[in-house]
Specification:
There is one protein chain. This protein has ten helices and two strands; from the N terminus they run ααββαααααααα. About 4% of the residues have low confidence. Keywords: Membrane, Transmembrane, Transmembrane helix. InterPro entries: Peptidase_M50B-like (IPR049500). It comes from Leptospira saintgironsiae.
């Protein structure tokens, strides 16, 4: 995947394939995986900020929820609520970048697969969609990390593109009923309003503002990840220098031990160790040194 054109062609082929089969049954497994990543973002942000997670659930209609108790304070709550959409874009962009770059692919898949399995075993209900999705994709990621012949890179690019594409598609939720999205939850919390009944205009305004901000960051994350992934590698300029060439007198060395006195005798007469005249440039250097 060193050629820029091939990278772009592969990326475009994956996007066209996903869009062509967007409503097909097998794509639903990918969608469930992205929803799981979204909810996992909330869960991980909660744990990082010192809170506790009770449950990760998937509803089967491309929706899910994370039941968590963030620590008190404004910053942890904002961090946890924002981690869903932004976290998905970070995962998608990072997978694309690693897949195309070809570095740290196996550790990336192992880390992601391990995290998915740990969250699944600890925070999903037995037999639920979240557990089935987490186990399936966690094992798949671990197995994929050991695939030979570049298949691990191809799978990484495919998953990264899928997660990124669905994460961008997920932003369309903000165009309808923004009050029911994470942006709406944050808007209700910021305005001190309780959900229910008629949605206050302040909640709608702030919700759309938050949605625009998240959308900007999400698109920026994926854009810069793609830009760095498909950009051609810079070719280092050749540093001009001296062509050292063969060392004088070493093609056919002087027979015997070369003592400082012998070397000085040859050089004082403008000869190398084979008795051949030294180049004028070398003689000029000798005069300067002398």
């Amino acid at each position: 995947m060193e050629n820029r054109f091939l990278r772009l062609a592969l990326l475009l082929a994956i996007i066209v394939t996903l869009l062509s089969y967007w409503n097909h049954g097998w794509v639903s497994y990918l969608k469930d995986f992205v929803v799981f990543i979204h909810e996992a973002g909330h869960a991980i942000a909660t744990l990082i900020s010192g809170g506790s997670v009770q449950m990760i659930e998937l509803n089967g209609d491309e929706a899910g929820q994370t039941v968590a108790s963030p620590t008190s304070g404004k910053s942890p709550f904002i961090f946890v609520v924002s981690a869903g959409y932004l976290g998905s874009c970070l995962v998608g962009g990072f997978l694309i970048n690693r897949g195309f770059k070809g570095s740290l692919v196996r550790p990336t898949l192992l880390l992601l697969g391990g995290a998915v399995l740990l969250l699944t075993l600890k925070y999903t209900s037995s037999g639920g969609l979240a557990q089935r999705t987490g186990l399936l994709w966690g094992i798949f990621l671990l197995v994929s990390s050991f695939l030979p012949f570049g298949w691990d890179r191809l799978i990484t690019v495919f998953l990264g593109t899928s997660v990124s594409l669905y994460s961008l598609y997920d932003l369309l939720d903000f165009t309808e009923n923004v009050q029911n999205t994470d942006a709406g939850i944050l808007a209700y919390w910021a305005t001190g309003t309780s959900p229910g009944g008629t949605v206050p205009k302040s909640v709608l305004f702030l919700g759309y503002l938050i949605a625009l901000l998240w959308s900007f960051f999400s698109v920026s994350i994926i854009f810069f990840s793609l830009k760095r992934a498909v950009a051609p590698r810079p070719v280092p300029d050749e540093t001009p220098g001296f062509d050292e060439g063969p060392v004088l007198g070493l093609d056919n060395p002087f027979p015997g031990e070369v003592t400082p006195e012998v070397l000085e005798w040859f050089l004082s007469r403008g000869l190398d160790l084979n008795g051949k005249p030294l180049p004028p440039e070398f003689m000029d250097i000798e005069r300067i040194d002398g």
